[in-house]
Input
Amino acid sequence: MTESPAFARRHLLGIEELSAAEIACLLDVADGYVEQNRRPDKKTALLRGRAVINLFFENSTRTRTSFELAGKRLGADTINMSVGASSIKKGETLIDTAMTLNAMHPDVLVVRHPDSGAVKLLSEKVRGAVINAGDGSHEHPTQALLDALTIRRRLGRLEGLTVAICGDVLHSRVARSNIHLLNIMGARVRVVAPPTLVPSDAERLGVEIFHDMRKGLKDADIVMMLRLQQERMNGSYVPSTREYFRFFGLTYEVLEHARPHALIMHPGPMNRGVEIDSEVADDIHRSVILEQVELGVAVRMACLDLLMRARGNEGVAA
Ligand code: NCD
Output
């Protein structure tokens, strides 16, 4: 593999600190892996001998599986650790867990944690590369990258597109990473949500804010729906899920206001009948939700590949 001067980071902690060139580099490399993943023989030996630990302090199905497959397809040894169920329960701190794993010389730690900033803190304590797989409501960089790859492959570009990010933006690290990425790549970003679910710093993030789906979706190229994250709500942000669906659910009627070619996206897991109508979610002509899942593996392979290339033969031992 050739060197990749466009991406020379030690960790992937967030989209906010990346440049357009770095994002484009990650997407270009991921594009190549999409083809590899469609072949019967999907495996290479690029990361043979490397160890990737998935350290998840929060539940996850698709992100954890996706990283596990990505590591395995590149020939790395991948290990999963769900911490909610083990040492944390016994009082071990985040840093103790990190130091324990660090002693086993992992080359990459893929970390998900319920607190914003926890993954960065951990990255300062370990020698291997750290990938943020979601920290609180802060960032989820690989999700934004796979969303960008999906859009770029379907519509040919990101620049100049109008993207409506709809729903529970307040609790969503997916929204935050996407807002950064789309702004960096020159798209126009709208946030469509009830006032209670718009973060207080939204204007500073460089988005246009709408509280009405019809207005927010007008002429949008992309309609990105978000899950209503009820597990993060300790108070009443929405009157009821039925009311929420009536005003902020994506239906064919509301979708009429977007561009005719507009794509429907959702990071999953979906609450059918809460933020999105089931039929719309399953519409093979409009919804790219399963394509997002497919491309997620390729994006994670690209992240592992580029982080390891950036470190060259730097050993993690000693
Ligand atoms: C998201 C997450 O965990 O942040 N899911 C995912 O990674 N695909 C979004 C969500 O939980 O709603």
Notes: Residues 62-63, 134, 140, 143, 173-174, 227, 229, 267-268 surround N-carbamoyl-L-aspartate (CB under 6 Å). The mean pLDDT is 93.
